[in-house]
Design a protein that fits this description.
single chain, mainly alpha, 3 domains, two-stranded parallel sheet, 20 helices, Argininosuccinate lyase, EC 4.3.2.1, argininosuccinate lyase activity
């Protein structure tokens, strides 16, 4: 490169750190994220680490009081409104500079036995655990609505589909209960991710811990972490905590997106299962009759963006060295935050959409009554009443249905005993031991559902029991959330109590 070319670059970029483009691409966006998302956990870590240094006799109480007074002068809201100052590489150094200005060089002792490495990871974990609790809370809100809707639609008969074709009669309550159970597994994965996230890196320092005799357990407890990461290298390098969160969020988005596809289909005029309440639809600019289900469409699209943001996290982790490295830090973390915020908002919106929709129960029942989807029970009935193997009974019923379909008579209204007997005689040589009343029962969707009372079935009694179990599970999940929030609140209280004790120290 010519010296002239180099000089032109330096004239534009500057001759000192940071260069103009590096500042604009990396440092300024990272600062803007940190000043909003990292300042509070950073201050908590300052307090907790200082308390530990004092209690372990590493920092003198008089010095510590001066440092606490300096920390107390930091105005969090003022920090959030600041612009990036390239005099400091990042928010950490800006805050450190302020503390040294306020308390003198002794404030530098706040960094004894710690590094930006273990501190940064702790901040990310503290940030992520709060977001996980918020997301679990949003998920539980939707789950509660699904349980209520399951009870409301326990008798709402509809056709269930397999391979996008009419399969068997069931109820909308049965479908919503399935959604509940799928959502429960999503919650369990988020809870598991929380347990992985809520582990303390503090005390790992840069990579190898410290020669100072510090108390890692005390800092862990003061910061509300329920465990410590034992190995110091793992503490600063193991990014799987956010990877586990990303996969949990990603799968939750995929799971919910499948029901969005169903809802968009069921809301068409041709299907006519339900009508959305007015706040959740949008009119056409040209077609007066249109009521577009845009709320569900947007949720489907946003779920895909949640999937994409979570995949970005996993992709940025891929093929990175196992060590402290920026790939898993400031550039990556916001993708996870955005994904979680969107998913939580979708849960709240979907709950409102479903709780206010108007279901066309009559149309769904009529469709089920007319559909060949009931004939599985007819085959079962032939097994019970005619001593036939299921495969032979299946053959008879299938032959009778195919004949009607070929004649374009695709309704149970055309399904009579004489027609069924004709096919039975053709296949077995004998008429069936079956009455018109038994045939009518076998083709009745209400009867179909009523006798499917095994665990997991759609019968009213079985779904009632399922609802009772899901309500109890909801209580347990709510208690888990309450417990985790309580641990964090208790940790904050411990810091406050120890600081008060320190500040009232009698010299």
């Amino acid at each position: 490169m010519s010296s002239l070319h180099r000089q032109k670059i330096l004239d534009t970029e500057g001759k000192n750190f940071p260069s103009k483009t590096y500042k604009e691409l990396v440092l300024e966006p990272a600062y803007n994220q940190a000043k909003v998302n990292s300042i509070r956990p950073m201050l908590q870590i300052h307090y907790a680490h200082l308390i530990m240094l004092v209690e372990e006799g590493i920092v003198d109480k008089d010095e510590a009081i001066k440092i606490v007074n300096a920390i107390n002068k930091i105005d969090v809201e003022d920090v959030k409104n600041r612009n990036y100052d390239s005099s400091y590489e990042d928010l950490f150094f800006e805050i450190e500079h302020f503390l040294i200005e306020q308390a003198g060089e002794i404030a530098g002792n706040l960094h004894i036995a710690r590094s930006r490495n273990d501190m940064g990871i702790a901040i990310y974990r503290m940030n992520l655990r709060d977001r996980l609790l918020n997301l679990v809370e949003a998920t539980l809100h939707l789950r509660r609505s699904l349980i209520e809707l399951t009870e409301e639609h326990i008798d709402t008969i509809m056709i269930g589909y397999t391979h996008t074709q009419q399969a068997q009669p069931t109820t909308l309550g049965h479908y919503l209960n399935a959604m509940t159970d799928l959502l429960t597994r999503d919650i369990n994965r988020l809870m598991s991710a929380y347990n992985t996230v809520n582990r303390s890196s503090m005390g790992a320092a840069a990579l190898t811990t410290s020669g100072f005799s510090i108390n890692r357990k005390l800092v862990q407890e003061l910061l509300g972490f329920e465990e410590r990461i034992d190995n110091a290298w793992d503490a600063v390098a193991g990014a799987d905590y956010i990877g586990e969160t990303a996969t949990s969020v990603q799968l939750a988005a995929i799971d919910l997106g499948r029901s969005m596809q169903d809802f968009l289909l069921w809301g068409t005029q041709e299907y006519g299962a339900f009508k959305l309440y007015e706040p959740y639809v949008q009119i056409s600019s040209i077609m007066p009759q249109k009521q577009n289900p845009v709320s569900i469409e947007h949720m489907r699209g946003l779920l895909s963006s949640v999937l994409g943001d979570a995949q970005t996290v996993l992709t940025m982790m891929h093929n990175t060295p196992f060590g402290d490295i920026v790939d898993t830090e400031d550039d990556m973390q916001p993708y996870m935050w955005h994904a979680m915020e969107k998913l939580g908002s979708i849960y709240y919106l979907l709950s409102s959409v479903l709780m206010t929709m108007e279901v066309n129960k009559e149309k769904l029942l009529k469709r089920a009554q007319e559909s060949f989807a009931n004939v599985t029970e007819l085959a079962d009935t032939l097994v019970r009443t005619n001593d036939l193997s299921f495969r032979k009974a299946h053959e008879i019923v299938s032959s009778a249905v195919k004949d009607l379909v070929a004649k374009e008579k695709e309704s149970l209204e055309e399904f009579h005993l004489d027609h069924l007997n004709a096919h039975a005689e053709k296949i077995t040589g004998n008429k069936l031991n079956l009455t018109e009343e038994e045939l009518e029962d076998a083709l009745d969707p209400e009867h179909f559902i009523k006798i499917r009372s095994l665990e997991g079935g759609p019968s009213k009694d079985r779904v009632k029991k399922a609802i009772e179990e899901r309500v109890q599970q909801q209580n347990d999940l709510d208690n888990w959330l309450k417990e985790k929030k309580g641990i964090l609140e208790s940790a904050n209280g411990m810091i406050d109590e120890r600081l008060k004790r320190m500040m009232s120290y009698d010299k």
